[in-house]
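User: Second chain of the day. Same drill as before.
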Amino acid sequence: ITSRSDRFMLPALIDGNANALFDAIDAYAAQTDLVVLDGSRLGRIDYGAATALHARLRVLAAQDKLIEVRDINHLVAALFRLMGFTDVAKLYAHKY
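Assistant: Same format as last time:
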């Protein structure tokens, strides 16, 4: 898990128990009001992990954090839209 100061890089795959990843996102978010998750490497996220991520992002949004998920592939973007992620985050699909 890596993060640059201006964005948090998501891994290629998010599945199963991703609590360590979510804790790292929380730690990153604690340092900034604009939470930028970079999904350029994210190829797949399973439904359970997406549900858990959505719950974590709702908590951050309730703390008045602005959340952007950038450079996600169109399949992940479609899943996130169906799950209601747009209620808590701005989604930017990768431009091919």
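Strands lie at 2-4, 7-9, 13-14, 34-38, 44-45, 66-72, 90-93.

User: Great, on to the next one.
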